[in-house]
Amino acid sequence: MVWLSWDLDERRYVRLKIVKSSQQLTNTAKDEIQIDAERRSEAKQDGALLNDFRITGIKGTHICLVFEELGHSLPKFFLKSNYRGIPLPNEKSTVRQVLEGLDYLIHTDIKP
Fold it and tell me: Per-residue pLDDT tens for 81-109?
């Protein structure tokens, strides 16, 4: 589950991904943290993952991943434009981001 959250320390919005406590999903989250750390060290750049921490509740311990906030979804852009499409600068930005994401996936271990 992913939530739009307010980071009290940094005073900004972030995406907070709370992973279910099952062993398989916990291991996948640990892999995601490791992959991001390796990608940042190899590319010498910031990663999408800003932070991670754990919380314990009645269903076990959950890994929480903190990511930078993203913009609106494409359907929201279409709705705001009365279904006339999105402006060319937004379209170019979207295509660039999709290609960057694809490049990232190609250079990491893709998991289901």
Answer: 888 888 888 889 888 888 887 876 766 55
* Token pair for 69: 């906030």
Residue in this structure with the two tokens 């990511």, named with its chain if needed: 67
Per 3-state DSSP, what percentage of the chain is helix, strand, and coil (rounded to 5)?
40, 30, 30
Three-point CA angle 28, 60, 8, nearest 5°: 80
CB burial of residue 94 (10 Å; 0-12, 13-18, 19+): middle
Of residues 48 and 26, the one with the higher pLDDT is 26
Q: Determine the Cα–Cα distance for residues 66 and 16; give it in Å rounded to an integer.
A: 5
For residue 24, which phi and psi values (nearest 5 degrees)? -60, -45
Active-site residue set: 109
